[in-house]
Specification:
The complex is a heterodimer of chains A (96) and B (476).
Chain A (H helix, E strand, L loop, with lengths): L3 H10 L6 H18 L34 H4 L6 E2 L2 E2 L9
Antiparallel strand pairs in A: 1-2
Helix pairs in contact in A: 1-2
Chain B lengths: L1 H4 L3 H9 L5 H13 L6 E4 L19 E5 L26 H8 L3 E6 L33 H8 L5 E6 L5 H7 L2 E4 L19 E6 L2 H11 L28 E5 H4 L7 H16 L3 E5 L7 H16 L18 H12 L2 H14 L5 H24 L2 E5 L15 H5 L7 H5 L3 E9 L2 E8 L5 H15 L9
Parallel strand pairs in B: 2-3, 2-4, 7-8, 7-9
Antiparallel strand pairs in B: 1-3, 4-6, 5-6, 5-10, 9-11, 10-11
Helix pairs in contact in B: 5-6, 7-16, 10-12, 10-13
Classes of the chains: A mainly alpha (96), B alpha/beta (476).
């Protein structure tokens, strides 16, 4: 069972500012799902290699050929705050 | 007009090629229907046919319109992945599979509604409202490609592109009475698909019949230098022509079709009847074992959220989409933007995935799930030594009432019981409509080894001809 402190810790890692009501609901819902999922830990998986890729592909390389990049104005077209040829963001030190 | 709508995509392409109908006339027939959509299947509909191209009738898809799931990036066209965090986003480029079908002569008809970031089995998680099932508008169309499935079933589009991560093409196809194919992992490029779980996501066709699925898939597959997990398909995708199933060995996995899956009586009855049809066509039907399949759902609900939590980190209010509280400090801006922009299911999965990947839990959860995945692949490999295909009902249930399962995430996840093992193993699977239970469509699923799409389509075609499913009632 996840408690409020654990939910808040994970929410911080995930960059989600949950409401109090969401924190309470998430604790219950995630605990229920995890209880179900926990069953796989009962399996004997000693020596089983983890799957990293389902299809046999080794060293998928392509030739390193120069090509035009996305034009800056196009890349910035959808930005909430285009700023001097870049993406404007609040200062990490600003107070909220 | 109604006569045009009754043509399958392959038949429509043939008529265009023969000069009997014009691409513009065909486009307008569907465009007007899509624009009057009452199922909320579309999030955007083109207002005019694409600029005339020289001799589109010479191309394989001959100007036939196509609906595309919202999460495929399409240049200058809204591509929102069903999420308010991407509301109004118009990408500067087009996804490879979309570009391929357009280059093959298809015309972009519209973008289809979906569960937010493809997370859901009912389409109730869309930021743009739920899609309604054309067979009964009080019911869900399935998900996450619910808009694509509803649009094809209702005759608002001749065919559509969707994506499947744990069943998101096959399950809505089953609930809407159409054909849905999830290809082998790597068969289709993922470039330009707004990512959910990168090791599982695959694009595929949702179509009215098996022939259309083959025609569309043939234009989708192929290696793409911009997706290093894509591979060259080892052979051309052919038009299916099998007339029987002589010598075809079908395995029925006890683990997926027994008591554990909670299969509804009506669905079970239809499944048994479909097995009898297969036998009448010459197939042999025997029980098979997939010992780890009951654990597939647990592995999936660790792997997919874990990958999603990483993929969705890019939605942070910096480069595109929503930004909330730009005067706060950086972390607060991220956190408030994501809190406001994501819906409840997306937040739940980000939380679950972040937890499963967090320090101290990684081995116990994600690592264990990846080992289970190996066992599931091994199970399928063993089954395919004795059987050509593994068959199950696609969904344990027919379409359920809107709201029936929204309060219980775990119950909703059980929708995927029969569809999740295949993407975990990277193998292809197709759902075809196999009849009705209480006037609602039922789907029959066939899964085969990696790159067996031609054989899979052939067997599905033979079954389709024998079943004779008629979905025309909802295209009026």
């Amino acid at each position: 069972m996840l408690d409020r402190a654990q939910v808040l810790h994970v929410a911080r890692l995930a960059r989600l500012e949950l409401t109090d009501e969401e924190v309470d609901r998430m604790a219950v819902e995630l605990s229920n799902v995890l209880d179900h999922i926990e069953k796989i830990r009962e399996l004997d998986l000693e020596g089983v290699p983890p799957t990293s890729h389902v299809i046999d592909v080794v060293n998928a390389l392509r030739p390193d050929e120069p090509a035009p990049s996305l034009p800056v104005e196009l890349a910035l077209r959808s930005a909430p705050e285009p700023l001097e040829q870049g993406f404007g963001v609040p200062s990490p030190g600003a107070t909220s | 007009m109604s006569e045009l709508i009754e043509l399958t995509a392959a038949q429509a392409a043939e008529r265009v090629r023969a000069g009997e109908i014009s691409p513009a006339e065909l486009f307008e027939a569907y465009r007007s229907r899509a624009a009057a959509d009452e199922c909320n299947a579309f999030t955007w509909v083109a207002d005019a046919p694409p600029a005339a191209r020289a001799d589109v009738s010479g191309l394989p898809l001959a100007g036939v319109p196509i609906a595309v799931k919202d999460l495929f990036c399409t240049e200058d066209v809204p591509s929102q992945a069903g999420s308010r965090i991407l509301e109004g986003y118009r990408p500067p480029y087009t996804a490879t599979v979309v570009q391929r079908v357009l280059d093959a002569g298809a015309a972009l008809l519209g973008k289809t509604n979906q569960d937010e970031f493809a997370m859901g089995s009912s389409n109730e998680n869309s930021g743009f409202g739920p899609v309604l099932n054309p067979w009964d508008r009080s019911r869900v169309p399935g998900g996450s490609s619910g808009g694509s499935a509803a649009a094809v079933a209702a005759g608002l589009a001749p065919w559509a592109l969707g994506t499947d991560t744990g069943g998101s093409i096959r399950q809505p196809a089953a609930l809407c009475g159409i054909v849905g194919l999830k290809p082998t992992y790597g068969a289709c490029s993922r470039f330009g698909m707004i990512a959910f779980a990168s090791s599982l996501d695959q694009a595929g066709p949702l179509t009215r019949d098996v022939t259309d699925a083959a025609l569309l898939l043939a234009q989708m597959v192929g290696r793409d230098p911009r997706d290093s997990t894509s591979v060259a398909f080892p052979e051309p995708i052919e038009t299916p022509r099998a007339e029987d199933l002589k010598g075809v060995r079908l395995g029925v996995p006890e683990e997926l079709t027994g008591e554990g899956g909670g299969i509804e009586p009506g669905v079970r009855e239809n499944f048994e009847a479909t097995l009898r049809v297969a036998e009448a066509l010459g197939a042999t039907v025997s029980p098979c074992r997939l010992p780890h399949a009951p654990h597939a759902l647990s592995a999936y609900y660790l792997i997919a959220p874990a990958e999603a939590s990483a993929n969705l980190a890019r939605f942070d209010g910096v480069r595109y989409g929503l930004r909330v509280d730009g005067s706060a400090d950086l972390i607060a801006m991220y956190s408030r933007t994501r809190e406001a922009g994501f819906g409840p299911e997306v937040k739940r999965r980000i939380m679950l995935g972040t937890y499963a990947l967090s320090s101290g839990y990684y081995d116990a959860y994600y690592g264990t799930a990846q080992k289970v995945r190996t066992k599931i692949s091994d199970d399928f490999r063993a089954a395919f030594e004795q059987f050509d295909f593994v068959v199950t009902p696609t969904s344990p249930w027919t379409a359920f009432e809107l709201g029936a399962k929204t309060d219980d995430p775990l119950a909703m996840y059980l929708n995927d019981f029969c569809t999740v093992p295949m993407p975990l193993a990277g193998i292809p699977a197709i759902s075809i409509p196999s009849g009705f239970s209480d006037a609602l469509p039922v789907g029959f699923q066939l899964a085969g080894p990696a790159f067996s799409e031609n054989r899979l389509l052939g067997a599905a075609y033979a079954l389709e001809q024998a079943i004779g499913f008629d979905g025309s009632a909802v295209r009026r």
